[in-house]
Fold this protein.
Amino acid sequence: MYDLTNAPETDPTPIYRHRDALYASDMLIVALKGLDLFSFLARQPQSVETICKHFQIFRRPTDVMTTLLVASGWLQRRGESLEVTRQAREYLVQDSPWFIGPYFPPVADRPIALDLLQCLKTDQPAKFNSRKDHEDWHRAMESETFAKEFTAMMDCRGVLLAQALAKSLPLTGRRRLLDVGGGSGIFACTICAHQDQLMATVFEKSPVDQIAAAAIADRGYQQRVQTIVGDMFLDQWPEGHDLHLLSNVVHDWDEADVWKLLKKSAESLTAGGLLVVHDTFLNADKTGPLHVAEYSVLLMHVTQGRCYSDAEITEIAREAGFDFVRQVPSAATRSGLIFSANGR
């Protein structure tokens, strides 16, 4: 098994961006051909709430769609309102002589676009990768076959991201890490590889806990990284940890569920403990970055969540009982937001 402290020589960020942006073009097709959103906004700027009411669609997926269109340069924010840019008015509005809508395929020809339109109308995730023989991602993870496939996907990403995060975290004096929803345990193992004093626990649902235990043993970290089975929403979190990690977790859930997770963290951290939320974040005014807005479409398709801005997560953390400490870089445009629990 390879050394978890051995970093690659090249930067894979451009490759990551291709993968993360897979569904962004289908979201444009939905806005252009499924809703004719640009023509609607060309008549008068509108708020997200008004857009939702007019098209009878839900706020979360609408927020994802409009954030993508702002980051792409086709919509712009004016306070709470969204208006079309000059480029969108010339090329994406039906009554323009330069309208290029016919150049794009209809929504019906694109399975992902069809599912995205349905997500807008129901606020429910689609089946993973639009596979007709699967449940949505949350239910599919209860199947051992799918759980192994998905956990392997996240593991290969974590090999890079975990090492970069481990090198950025202020871990001096930390003793026990709780990796909540930790998948294969790649983050727990890698952070332990960089911190000899650290022990770790991966807290996961069945059957992922068993997949994680096998992967941890294969890497030779079974003496330092244990697994505990449990539901991070329903069950009490394991206590006695002075460092909590939520890596690529909050983007799977809506705001109310994110608050529940952060509240559980605040309640179970030891005194002086830290929470690290590791993810890829939009900027505070949600005008970009484009690659994060693109990734948010993929997440909206398959989960109950989306990409959040760093300001949104910081505010939810404050409401859950945390103070912001700092933001540290990871890799491939990811980063970690570090929080300390109030009064602990």
The chain has two domains: 13-139, 143-286+306-341. Residues 144-168 form the longest helix (25 residues).
